[in-house]
Amino acid sequence: MNWKRAKTLFIIVFLLANICLVSVYINKVNKSQVNDAENDNAVNFEQENIKLPKNIPNTQGVKMQLITARSKDFGKEAETDDDAESSDDGHTISKEMDEVVNVKQDPITHLKPYVDDNVYKGSSYQYHETDNNEIHYEQTYKGFPIMNNNRADLSFKVDGDNVKSYTQSAMEDIRPSKGSNNQPRDVISARDAIEALYYNQYLASGQEVLSMRLGYYTVVKETNVQVLQANWEIKVNDGKEIHTYYVEAVSSNPQITE
């Protein structure tokens, strides 16, 4: 055996191993520095005396994009139905229900089957809230609500323990907006959206984030056509009143609408 050659090979292998170890170490250090920088920039909401919801939505892997939609015209349907009446240039219809639904104990469970089976595009609506004796549903697109929109609303008036009629508006022909730049983009995290409120002085010490949800919010509204954008809807209690903010959900520098 040529010991001189073996010795040289051993030294080369040893040097290569050391180079690999150094490279791995440097990568770990760089990653650590990046994480430390991110942690340094993160807002310590507990220290700032800002209360957050217990269950913050997790949107990891969710991608969304601009969508367009047209307002449904219920005019012809109202003309042929003696129990229906249209308003808002035909974009809203009010109907007497062909059956009375008792909503005293569980309005969501008891009313949803009627919505699914009897209301136009009923399965695309989801329960939102009950307010002033009215049960409100919102139309959805791919599982996300079309928020704060009087053209995508379904409301039942509660009379005693029952509902006997409803008022509806609806979007149709909902699809991604045209344009080469309208590719699905990653949604910013719920925490990033809250931090955007904080850094833009919409959220301050002593206030509370009551709730937040992800959906579509109208950014362009024409007579019959709307353009909707992914937004976080965040409700904040400042101690005097409750504010509702909409934070762009697919932007690294999101705009905020109140």
Q: Termini distance?
A: 81 Å
Quick check: average pLDDT? Answer: 87
The number of helices is 4
Number of strands: 15
Shape: globular
Unreliable runs, pLDDT <50, ≥5 residues?
28-39
What portion of residues belong to β-strands? 35-45%
InterPro entries: YycI-like
Pfam families: YycI
Domain Regulatory protein YycH-like: 32-250
Organism: Staphylococcus felis
Tags for this model:
alpha+beta, 258 residues, six-stranded antiparallel beta sheet, seven-stranded antiparallel beta sheet
Description:
The chain has 4 helices and 15 strands. The chain is of the alpha+beta class and 258 residues long. The strands form 3 sheets. Strands 3, 4, 5, 6, 7, 8 and 9 form a 7-stranded antiparallel beta sheet that branches. Strand 8 and strand 9 form a beta hairpin. The protein starts with a helix and ends with a strand.
